[in-house]
Design brief:
By secondary structure, the chain is α/β, with parallel strands linked by helices. It has 2 domains: 1-31, no CATH class; 44-243, Rossmann fold. The chain has 9 helices and 5 strands. 34% of the residues are buried.
Length: 250
């Protein structure tokens, strides 16, 4: 198909279907990753989730939130397995969960660059991202991507503190090579601690004394159970209380 015919086809497709049904690559031409470049630092959308991103933008537009969470499915599932804990801990706060399942660092970065949090003016942002990059990217690449996403949040939320969490442990056994890779990434991103970035690695709280991860805490050895979300909430509660205290009872 020639370029002219392709453009005509896209115009017709746009007229026939709602915006949310058009692949991201048809609306925003996807950037090409230059040879040797770090793909985790290149902001890029995923075709299958543009509709959800747009729906979130529509839902949050013109609103203010004190507390934001952002990341991948582990964060997204606060609205699933973690919903009861979310309501108990954050239901009385102006809180919103931006996490999207399967997101990599570059996907979160793209969402921010499309204005995801512009004007929301949060007090605290809880961010944990990078586990979905672990199969493709190196330790340095992932750490650089997380650094870029952190910087983007600091720029777009100038009054916010960022609570940057170390990537959670995954896999049942402490000897699994992915554990060592995650530990290496976390060691690097710990250096992002600053006056506006609080770095916290709570991974050990999910583990048994011998380093094993149980199904009781993470049934698939990746996503927390309700108990896992309670562990998460307990671990970050002091930081949440510091920056977003619960409103006084009337």
């Amino acid at each position: 198909m020639t370029r002219v015919l392709l453009l005509i086809a896209l115009v017709l497709a746009f007229a026939a279907r709602a915006f949310s049904e058009i692949p991201a690559s048809a609306v925003w031409p996807l950037p090409v990753v230059p040879h040797g470049a770090n793909p985790a630092t290149l902001a890029i959308p995923r075709d299958d989730w543009v509709a959800r991103v747009q729906a979130t933008l529509d839902k949050t537009s013109g609103q203010h939130f004190d507390l934001l969470f952002d990341g991948d499915s582990i964060t997204d599932f606060w609205q699933g397995a973690g919903k009861a804990v979310w309501m108990e801990r954050y239901g009385s706060l102006k809180a919103f969960d931006f996490g999207i399942s399967a997101d990599k660092v570059e996907n979160l970065l793209w969402r921010l660059q499309q204005g995801q949090v512009d004007g929301l003016d949060p007090k605290l942002v809880v961010m944990m991202i990078g586990t979905n990059n672990s199969g493709r990217d190196s330790v340095d690449q992932i750490a650089q991507g997380i650094s870029a996403a952190t910087a983007e949040y600091l720029k777009r939320c100038p009054h916010a503190q960022v609570l940057l969490l170390g990537i959670f442990p995954r896999s049942a056994l402490a000897t699994d090579p992915i554990r060592a890779k995650i530990a290496a990434i976390n060691q690097k991103i710990a250096a992002l601690q600053s006056d506006r970035v609080t770095y916290l690695d709570i991974g050990s709280k999910f583990l048994q004394p011998d380093g094993t991860l149980t199904k009781e805490v993470m049934p698939d050895f990746l996503h927390p159970s309700a108990k896992g979300y309670e562990i998460w909430a307990d671990a970050i509660q002091p930081v949440v209380d510091k920056y977003v205290p619960k409103p006084a009872a009337k």
